[in-house]
Amino acid sequence: xxxxxxxxxxxxxxxxxxxxxxxxxxxxxxxxxxxxxxxxxxxxxxxxxxxxxxxxxxxxxxxxxxxxxxxxxxxxxxxxxxxxxxxxxxxxxxxxxxxxxxxxxxxxxxxxxxxxxxxxxxxxxxxxxxxxxxxxxxxxxxxxxxxxxxxxxxxxxxxxxxxxxxxxxxxxxxxxxxxxxxxxxxxxxxxxxxxxxxxxxxxxxxxxxxxxxxxxxxxxxxxxxxxxxxxxxxxxxxxxxxxxxxxxxxxxxxxxxxxxxxxxxxxxxxxxxxxxxxxxxxxxxxxxxxxxxxxxxxxxxxxxxxxxxxxxxxxxxxxxxxxxxxxxxxxxxxxxxxxxxxxxxxxxxxxxxxxxxxxxxxxxxxxxxxxxxxxxxxxxxxxxxxxxxxxxxxxxxxxxxxxxxxxxxxxxxxxxxxxxxxxxxxxxxxxxxxxxxxxxxxxxxxxxxxxxxxxxxxxxxxxxxxxxxxxxxxxxxxxxxxxxxxxxxxxxxxxxxxxxxxxxxxxxxxxxxxxxxxxxxxxxxxxxxxxxxxxxxxxxxxxxxxxxxxxxxxxxxxxxxxxxxxxxxxxxxxxxxxxxxxxxxxxxxxxxxxxxxxxxxxxxxxxxxxxxxxxxxxxxxxxxxxxxxxxxxxxxxxxxxxxxxxxxxxxxxxxxxxxx
Amino acid sequence: xxxxxxxxxxxxxxxxxxxxxxxxxxxxxxxxxxxxxxxxxxxxxxxxxxxxxxxxxxxxxxxxxxxxxxxxxxxxxxxxxxxxxxxxxxxxxxxxxxxxxxxxxxxxxxxxxxxxxxxxxxxxxxxxxxxxxxxxxxxxxxxxxxxxxxxxxxxx
Lengths: 660, 156
Description:
Chain A has 660 residues and is of the alpha+beta class. Chain A folds into three domains: 6-93 and 251-317, no CATH class; 142-222, Alpha-Beta Plaits, CATH 3.30.70; 336-635, no CATH class. Chain A is 62% helix and 9% strand. Chain A has 24 helices and eleven strands. In chain A, the strands form three sheets. In chain A, strands 1, 2, 8, 9 and 10 form a five-stranded antiparallel beta sheet that branches. In chain A, helix 2 (47-69) packs across helix 5, helix 13 (374-390) runs antiparallel to helix 14 (399-418) and helix 19 crosses helix 20 (541-551). The radius of gyration of chain A is 39 Å and the shape is extended. Chain A starts with 5 loop residues before the first strand and ends with a helix. By secondary structure, chain B is mostly helical. Chain B has a single domain (2-153), classed as lithium bound rotor ring of v- atpase (Four Helix Bundle (Hemerythrin (Met), subunit A)). In chain B, 83% of the residues lie in helices and 0% in strands. Chain B contains five helices and no strands. In chain B, helix 1 runs antiparallel to helix 3, helix 2 (44-52) packs parallel to helix 5 (126-153) and helix 3 runs antiparallel to helix 4 (84-121). The two termini of chain B are 13 Å apart.
C-alpha cells in the first residue's frame, strides 16, 4: 500500500574518484550501501588507521565539549532533558565558527583552560591544608626558620585528643621537655613541645603511644602569622587567576562550544563515510558499490551522479525474487504520524503492505477513549502543536508530536461525548455553573453512571477491529492466490463470528425473536463448515474431524481478544475519576480565605497536569498494545528492515536549510 | 455501622494492594534505571517511562478506593449506612483490583527492569520494552474493571 518500491543499484567506477563519489552519496542521503562479503579484496590499506584517527579526534572534541558545557549557561528547559535540542546553523555560519575557533587557538586554548583550572584547584587545596596546619600556632611569635636552626633543642608542633592531654603532659615532663598548649578546640588540643635533641627518640615513643599528630612545618620560614598572610595572598591571587579564566571562558566559550559542535558532527560524518568505504568491493583500480534506492529517487540521483562523474557506470534494476529490499514508508499527512506506532512493532517485510493506514483510525479512537476528557484533548493538541513549532530537531523525529496532536483532537470529541471537561469541573465549582448545561447537552452517556454502555462500545470496537483484521488477511490471501485459505480460514470465520453475535442479538431485541431459531441453525451450519474444513491438512479422516473440532476452540481466543478491549473502559474511567478527585480536593481548600484560593489553583493545575500526562501515556501504550497483539496478530508478519541510507548524521547541529 | 466499616476495609485494601504492588514495581524498575543513568544520562526520557509504568496499579487501586468512598458518601452530605451484607459485598468487590494490582505491579516492575537492560544496549528498542511491560498490566486493568462493574452493581 504505502511501502515505497525499491530498486537495486550498482555503481562501478575508478578508485581515484571513489571518495568523491561516496561523499556525494552521503550528501544526497538517498542510497543505502549494502555490505558485501569479500574473499580477496584489494582493500584500502590506509582505511583502518584513518578511521582510528577520526575516532581519536572525535573523542578529543567530545571531552572538550563536556568540559565547556559545564561553564556555558544554556537556555535549556525541562524539554531538553527529554529531547536534546539542536543548533540551527547555515553553512556560512559554520565556516565562520570554525574560522573563529582556529583564530582563538582551538583545542589548545580549551585544554589549557582545563589544565589551568585543574592546577589552580590543586594549589588552592594544598594552601588550604597548610593554612589549617598553621592556624592553631598563629600566636607563636618566633619565625619558624629560627626554631629549625636551633642546635640542641627540637621543637614539635602537635595535636592530641583532649582526654589524653593530662596524662601525656605528665609523662613527657619526666623527660625535661616543655609542653605549652596554644589552642584547644572541643575535641583536640594543640601544643608545642620543646625538648633536648638527645631525648628525641624517647619523645617520639610517647607520641606514638598517645596517638599524637606531629605537623611538619619545615617548608615555612617566617612566623606563623606571616606565613598565614602569605598563604592568604597566594589564595587570593589564584582565585583572581581563576576568575580571569572563567571570564575568558564566558567570553569565548560559547562560540568555541558551538564550533566544537560543528566539528563533532562533521567528524561523525567522516567516520560514517569511511566506515562505508569498508563495505565496498575493490579491485586494483576499480570500486564496486551495490545498494538500494527508492524508485522515485532513482532517475534524479542517476542524473546527478552522471553529470558529476563521467567515468561512473550506474545501473538500477528491480529486486530479484530472493532479494529483501529495505523498507521505507510513505503515507498521506493524516496517516504518516501513525508510522511511529508501526515503527515500534517493526516494519513490514517486503512481501507485505504497510499496515499504518489500517491502524490509524483505530489507534486515534482508542487513544481518545482512554483519555476521554475534552480539556485534556485541547491541552494535548495545543502543547504538541507548540512543541512541533518550537523544537529544533529533524522533521522526521517530530512525527510523535503530530500523532499526539491528531489524538488530542479525537480526545476532545470523546471527552465531549462522555461529559469529561477536567472531570466534572463545571459541576464541582459553582462559578463555572454556566457551562454545566452545555456540558450536559453534549454528553451522550456518563461512563461513571452507565459503565455498561462504555463497556459495550469498547467491546464492539474490538470486535470490529478483529473482524477487520481477518478481512485484511483474507484479501492478502486472495492477492497471493491462496483461495482455499482465504475462504476456509478467514471468510468462514468472519461469517461464523458475525453469526454468533447476530444470533445473540436476536435474543436481546424483542422484535427479532422470531428469527432467532433460523439464526441458531445458520450458526451451527457455519460451525460444521469450520469443523469440516479446518482439519484439511491432516491425512486420516479421524484426524481431520478431531482437529476440525479442536479448531472451534479458537472461539475462546477470539473472545479473549475482544475482552482485551475492555481496557478502554477502565482507562477511560480512570481519567474521569482522578480528575473528579482533583476537583474535590481543590474544593476542600475553598474554606480557607485567600491562601485557600492559591493552594487550590496550584493543586488544580498540578493535579490535572499529572492526570493528563499519566493517562495520555497509558492511552498511548495500551492503544499500541491493542494494535500489536490483537490486531496485527490476525494478519501482520513484520520483520522488515528500515531503509537506512548513507547520510549525514547530526548530533548537535542541524542545517538551517533542513529546518525549512 | 459494621457495614460501613467493612466497606471502608474494602476501599483500604484496594488502595494499599495497588500501592504496594506499584511501590515494589517502580522500586525494581527505578533501581535498574538509576544504574543505567549513571552511564548514559541521555536516556533519561526513555527510562522515565519504563520506571513509571508499574506505577499505574497504585492509581487503579486508588481509583477503586475512591469509588467506594464516593459510594458511601463519605466526602460530603449524609453518609450512606450499608447493611453488613452490603458492606461485605463492597469488600469482596474490591478484592480483584487489590490482589491483581499487588501481584502485577511487582511483575511489571521486573519486566520493566529487564526492558532497561534492552534500552541500555539499543535505545531504539524502548518502545518494544514498554509494550512488553504493558502486557503484564492487562491483568491489573481486568481486575479494576471487575471491581468497577461489581461496585456498580451493588445497590445501597
